[in-house]
Write a structure and sequence with these properties.
- The complex is a heterodimer of chains A (114) and B (112).
- Chain A is mainly β and 114 residues long.
- Helix content of chain A is 0%, strand content 48%.
- In chain A, the strands form two sheets. In chain A, strands 2, 4, 5, 6, 9, 10 and 11 form a seven-stranded mixed beta sheet that branches. Chain A has a four-stranded antiparallel beta sheet with strand order 1-3-8-7, with no helix packed on it.
- The N and C termini of chain A lie far apart (37 Å).
- By secondary structure, chain B is mainly β.
- In chain B, a hairpin with a 2-residue loop joins strand 6 and strand 7.
- Classes of the chains: A mainly beta (114), B mainly beta (112).
- Chain A binds chain B through residues 33, 35, 40-45, 48, 55-56, 89, 91, 98-99, 101-108, and chain B through 4, 8, 32, 34, 36, 42-46, 49, 88, 90, 96-105.
Chain lengths: 114, 112
């Protein structure tokens, strides 16, 4: 079974620039999550999709972050404009359905804002 | 109060000993609990999940849950240097979103 695919692995941008991350979940997984993990902290949920609908985006800074999941498969997360405090690893995870056991995480995208 | 609390460590344990990691959570309605292991520079990896009060064993790992005390723990027997990592406790909150909230993790170091 192929895992959760994410790209790019690393990204360095200047503050006020924009950046986009891509995620392709495990085939058949209806639920997709984007997490932000700042160094030394646990992952923080940004947004949860069920198929192509948003279930929870209460922690997403909507003035600068946006996310979409077209056709209920892959997803993109965008930051515009980026701030220094956005430097983190952005993790995508999927699970077959909300009641299934835990998440499978992708390898993450490490973003550095300078 | 944080939803999921862990001691950040580092916790240093000699090789071959038992490592004990603890976690408390605030949402009394939480129903499922997870332990993830995260090596430096890598993404979290699910190692244990538990739903019912009591113990659940899988190889060298034992997860313990006490819902009355809102307490989850992970025991690692015969600790190996390869167990050195950050261990994240996670809780599946009740409600329609059914999202998983993570603690900040405990850094475990196994000394030879």
């Amino acid at each position: 079974e192929a895992g959760v695919a994410q790209s790019p692995r690393y990204k360095i941008i200047e503050k006020r620039q924009s950046v986009a991350f891509w995620c392709n979940p495990i085939s058949g997984h209806a639920t997709l999550y984007w997490y932000q993990q700042i160094l030394g902290q646990g992952p923080k949920l940004l947004i949860q999709f069920q198929n192509n609908g948003v279930v929870d985006d209460s922690q997403l800074p909507k003035d600068r972050f946006s996310a979409e999941r077209l056709k209920g498969v892959d997803s993109t997360l965008k930051i515009q404009p980026a701030k220094l405090e956005d430097s983190a690893v952005y993790l995508c995870a999927s699970r077959e359905y909300t009641g299934s056991y835990g998440y499978t995480f992708g390898s993450g995208t490490r973003l550095t804002v300078v | 109060q944080k939803e999921v609390e862990q001691n950040s460590g580092p916790l240093s344990v000699p090789e071959g000993a038992i490592a004990s990691l603890n976690c408390t959570y605030s949402d009394r309605g939480s129903q499922s609990f997870f332990w993830y292991r995260q090596y430096s520079g890598k993404s979290p990896e699910l190692i244990m999940f538990i739903y019912s009060n009591g113990d659940k064993e899988d190889g060298r790992f034992t997860a313990q849950l006490n819902k009355a005390s809102q307490y989850v723990s992970l025991l690692i027997r015969d600790s190996q240097p390869s167990d050195s990592a950050t261990y994240l406790c996670a809780v599946n909150l009740r409600g329609s979103a059914s999202k998983i909230i993570f603690g900040s993790g405990t850094r475990l170091s196994i000394r030879p």
